[in-house]
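Possible regression after last week's pipeline update?

I re-ran a chain I had predicted before the update to compare outputs. Posting the input and the new output here so someone can diff against the archived version. Not blocking, just want to make sure nothing changed silently.
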Amino acid sequence: MSENRDTGQGGPSSYRQFGKYLLLEKIGAGGMAEIFKAIVRGAGDFQKVVVIKRILLNYSRDPSFVSMFRDEANITSPLQHANIVSIFEFDHVDGQYYLVMELVNGRDLRKVMARANKLERSIPEDIALYIVGEVCKALWYAYNARDAYGNPLKIIHRDVSPSNILISFNGEVKVTDFGVAKAATSSVKEQGGVLKGKLGYMSPEQVIHGQVDHRSDIFSLGIILFEALTLKRLFLGKSDLQTLMNIRSADLESRLARHPELSETVKKLLRSALAKDPDKRYHSAEDFLNDIQDWFFANNVRVGQSKLASFMKDLFPQESDQDILPLDSEETNSPPVVPPPVLPVQQPVGTKPPAFERQDTLDSSLRSAMYHVKDLKGRVIGPVSFDNLVGLVRSRSVLEDESCSVNKGSWVRIGEVSAIRSQIDVLTVTDSGRRSLLTEGNIVQQDTLPLMFDICVAKRLTGLLSLKQGVTLKEIYFREGRPKFIFSNLQSELLGEYLASKRPGSSDSVLPVAVHELAETLSGLFYERFEQVFEWESGWHGFYENVEIPRAAVLHDLDPMVAITSGVRKYYKLDFLKTWAAGSLDRGLVRASNPKIRLDDLRLLPRELRIVNLIETNPSISSLLRVTTNHEDVYRIIHLLIGTGVYHFGGVFRNA
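New output (post-update):
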């Protein structure tokens, strides 16, 4: 593991004995484990500096986490390669499990890129290609390695990312963290619906269905090469959902167009590594490596450890000169200092301590944990990431009164989790007295279609449509006629209810939603919220001009005509339509000469288009009813055509 010195720790007073190891300093922490630099001593003057990755004590009691930890040790321990961090031991002390690993005295690639960016420097093309080539060697070896019995391991890393590529100050490149790796000999079962790896470095096949082979690692490595060369994130979006969408589309060409400084040869390498279709990608890490070596040969360039070491020492001049072993580490014969116990914070009588308050204060790794959400009816949704949970609350798909658990822990009210609460802006709209009210009126179902068509198409308004019906509130934010964000307090339009309605045959109270399903799920929920307005038979509406969309809102882009047609199709029933058409059954249907939309924009179904075609010879509702048995569709389509201005009523038509 790479050293990441915490200058706030260190010194003899902070040394602690952990089994046979002396913990020198904490150099990292994650959602489930903490990482220390440590010393192990033997006979005579023998001593070795190592890295200890230790599961947090509460997770050491969870068999599933221990199993995952053990699997990492079992997968990695047979690997003996210059470009892979070695695993020395897997054991436990007083029930707390740990891994002992090789120390890589340097920095991970993420920190290298960050330092170069901070200093406004670039990573030279040959250096970036050399680093990626060394990773190729590690991946190729791991995939082709065999265990002690000669069985092929076929290890797929599945989390190839800059933070898992370590570069020493001596110019070594090593791959680490096989915590989510999958080997052919592994007995650990896959957990359905859970994405493995870091979101911004996943392959399209990972985010679409989660099934991967070794070519997924190649795609991840292609992302790393692009980012090392440009110091720009390739697929990162403003939210996890946008990142997933970017990866699914895998649009490389538009991003390459922004970087004319990249040579055509390097662009060819990137295209082969980042092909959306795995079959069009490099077949193996060895093929990727061969093309990199061909680049070095064609450009008459030689790069090795010494050149990379010079680059690292130039980027990190002070850090590279620090001693691996603290000078005062010899002063360790005194008994280890035991830190005082953490006492519970005394709360005033009658008050309830905020949930997760201690974890929020002591462990910022809640961001890297996985969450489950329990709705008000007890249904469980998940796992989802921290950012996705925040997005669900921001979009009002999940309420703060509902519950969540972190890493399968106890259930707490979402609004009491300070780590989440601090990330959510209050989504309150400006006081109505300060808004500019463009129009208002009572809600009558027959007027909903022309109202929505006027906002979305005829006038392409920007602002807020507020709809109230008793205690029910719905707010639709528009930008140039396109709905972008919808707030609803209807219980049926919360995420749990929406998912339950889509899985009516399930007897399981758990509704697992993979992170890669959220984009599609939330998009469907967004359309549902808009279309449901067509069901309202009474209430009040007001449109406020130029009201800004809440800053914390998770935005969508809804096709208004698709949603309008769908709303009419779902919620306008025959009795209502007959009442609406009662006085116009014999009036002629006249095609508008200059309508605001085309007939194709309505996205009509084939059976509905047949009714439109019949209007030519039967230009009234009465005549249409005589030539077709599908009366409900006749009424509905005529209402849609009249409400959108594609047709209008003329004088009385008498069929000869």
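Follow-up from reviewer: compared with the archived run. The chain has a mean pLDDT of 80. Marking as no regression found.
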